[in-house]
Amino acid sequence: MVTPDAEGRMPGPAPAVETRRLVKWYGGYPALRGIDLCVAPGEILALFGSNGAGKTTLLRILAGRVRPTAGTARVAGFEVGKGGDSARGAIGTLAHGHQLYETLTASENLAFAAAMLGLDRAGERIAQVLLRVGLKAAAGSSVRTLSSGMKRRLALAKLMLRECKVILLDEPYASLDLQATKLLEEFLMASKIGGAATILATHNLTMGFGVADRLAILRQGRLVFEGRRDETSLDAFRALFSLHGELGEVE
Amino acid sequence: MIGRGLERALGILAVIGLVTGLYTGFLYAPPDAVQGEVQRIMYLHVPLILVSYFAFFVVFVTSILYLARRCERHDAIAHSSAEIGVLFTALAIAAGSIWGRPTWGTWWTWDARLTTTTILLLIFIGYLMLRALVDDPSRGATFGAVLGIIGFLDVPIIHMSVVWWRTLHQPASVLRPGPSTVAPDMQVALYTNLAAFVLLYGYFLVKRVRLEKARWELIRLRMEGAA
Amino acid sequence: MSFVRRVVAIARKDLLAEWRDRESFSAMFFFAFLVLFLFNFALGGDQTLIRGASSGLLWLAFTFTSVLGLARSVQGELENDCLDGLLLYPAPREAIYLGKLLVNFTVILVVELVIFPLFAVLYNMDLWSRLPKLLLIAVPGTIGFAAAGTLLSAMTAGLKARDAMLPFLLFPLTIPLILSAVKGTEVVLRGDPFELAVPWLKLMVAFDTVILVASLLTFEYLVEE
Amino acid sequence: MGADPAEDGGGGVNPWPYILAAYLLAAVGLLCYLLSVSRRTKAMVAQIATLRRFSKDTMR
């Protein structure tokens, strides 16, 4: 049983993701009010919270997309914003929007992603990930004609194009069909074994709880709970979650 | 930052400067040999243009500093200086056009400097509109900084293109806005007024920057209130 | 090396998307034709007057049509968080700017190549024989306009009043460029010796250099949150 | 590009109304700006004072 030390820091290798008193203001609105978080390689953290709790802001800061107002954040060995462009190579993300170009075909989208990621001879890699997500047949069809479930699977395929040290998922279960959900969980397990640290932000208590090593609840920009999954049960956690006034859980 | 003392001092100096400027402009300097009395508008028009160019230069420098160091003070100065620059440029163009009416018989002619100044006015009105439209203050400051830098870098090119374009159309006539003769007492009037408007610019800048500081203070108070 | 590959990848992606549905190209083409057609009525059908002002009219059509194309270039990225996706790649911001610039430049140049013959047909002018010289003026002009346009469309993409703000910021800044392009084109159309157009060419190159350097240095700040 | 007006050298026209107009316009413009800045500052300072008093009450 690996137990974190007093500050919740996992012993052993340096944490893949570490933030200290991370603050973010949008104009007069406090999105994050001082977050201290730590995720070790090979660990999955499920981050729960209602809309506006700051989940997306936190993920976008860690992805190097948003500058923090105060505090520091280290991801995959680089401080956010300081590691230069290549630092973002080790970070894989899934966002609200599927970030695909509707007028291009599935394989063209993946080819573009591969080029931007600097992958050489991406041809067979693209065919491989398309096969894994079951979109082999739809490779040549334009993304506009795909169903939203298939678009999410294509976004997942884009994430699978190369190994990542840190994976940041924002509401990954949204509009996923059963088969796609299974694919996502297989991917998470494979990455976990591969040593990647994952942060999964979601409303979905049941799914998030099922796959996580550690749990955290974000409320109005503050971490109000953090703990190991095996120290609590789903029902106890659900009670705790509603205690914090996070009703209206999305199944 | 700069306390109220400096503001009051600049204010008093500006008033003194303006009054002496008026005196030299109207009584001390003789009427222009060619243009007659109307040339006295130049003691208003020329200083306004020179100080507004200086104001936009201040925007240029503080914008670069803001992008480099991200400190609010630089953004406050850039925004304030741009606003004052737009005011001075607008007044300068109005004065220039009023000067043109009796001299050329029309309110507007495509005189090289008047055209360049008007283009500059348009660019920095765009700057102020951009600042007003972006709601997130830090993004607004960044966009403003970029536009301030590019706007100012454009000035020499605008000036050259307009001057070349002008000389193709009308050889530089004596009747261009600006002191046509360099009589010493006329220069005295010009430089007094210039000094007066520089002081006025300083006074406005300090006053306007204090407003920006108050705005940031308000945002910070809201931050603490909500934290 | 991977920098150039990324610039080309972005340009290819956008041009492919543009070629697929040809939305913005057809909008620009129709708009250009409309503008050219209206010139006739605007100038009272006086052919000599139109021919005399032809370089100005051409560049008026070019610039207004280009603004239409520029606004769409960033708009396309805003759907489905594609802009976020683009910025999450480990690619440098300058590569993204140059990729977008290459796309905008290509689309605008293609529209210009359509407007030239259209203008020649509508107003019975022989542009064909002077096309190489016309391009010698049009290419630097289009580079500068696309460079400033790409930067400003990235800046105004998220704004509420972006359709008004882009032209409002873009035109004052590019006045010297448009001025030089018009004068350069005038020299070519009048058949004067090309040396007369060289000073205007130099001015355009100066503008292009300033705007490109300034854009490459500041683009990263525009897309940062 | 636009015919140039005849230059009448400002001979017969009485320049003084134009001179006064230019200076008056400038004076009015500068004064309005000064008033608007001080008005905006006063309003801002008032808001800050109320906010500070409000936070002082909650602090007690």
Characterise this structure.
The complex is a heterotetramer of chains A (251), B (227), C (225) and D (60). With 251 residues, chain A is an alpha/beta fold. Chain A has a domain of 165 residues: P-loop containing nucleotide triphosphate hydrolases (Rossmann fold, 3-Layer(aba) Sandwich), CATH 3.40.50.300. Chain A is built from 7 helices and 10 strands. In chain A, the strands form 2 sheets. In chain A, strands 6-7-8-3-9-10 form a 6-stranded mixed sheet, sandwiched between helices. In chain A, β4 and β5 form a beta hairpin. Chain B is an all-alpha fold and 227 residues long. Chain B has one domain. Helix content of chain B is 81%, strand content 0%. Chain B has 6 helices and no strands. In chain B, α2 packs antiparallel against α3 and α2 packs parallel to α6. Chain C has one domain. In chain C, 84% of the residues lie in helices and 0% in strands. Chain C has 9 helices and no strands. Chain C is globular. The two termini of chain C are 28 Å apart. Chain D contains 1 helix and no strands. Chain D has 60 residues and is an all-alpha fold. Chain D starts with 15 loop residues before the first helix and ends with a helix. Chains in contact: A-B, A-C, B-C, B-D. The interface between B and D is large, with 45 and 36 residues.
Spans of at least 5 consecutive residues with low confidence of chain D: 1-10
Overall geometry of chain D: rod-shaped
What's the total count of β strands of chain D?
Answer: 0
Largest interface by Cβ-Cβ < 8 Å: B-D, 45 and 36 residues
Shape of chain A: globular
Span of the ends, CA to CA of chain D? 73 Å
CATH architecture of the domain at 17-100 and 163-243 in chain A: 3-Layer(aba) Sandwich
Q: Taking Cα atoms only, what radius of gyration of chain D do you get, to the nearest Å?
A: 25 Å
- Count of distinct strands of chain A: 10
User: How many helices of chain A does DSSP assign?
Assistant: 7
Rounded to the nearest angstrom, the radius of gyration of chain A is 18 Å
Summarize model confidence as the mean pLDDT of chain D.
Answer: 79
Largest sheet of chain D: none
Strand content of chain A is 15-25%
Provide the residue-averaged pLDDT of chain A. Answer: 86
The helicity of chain D comes to: over 70%
Number of helices of chain D: 1
C-alpha termini separation of chain A: 31 Å
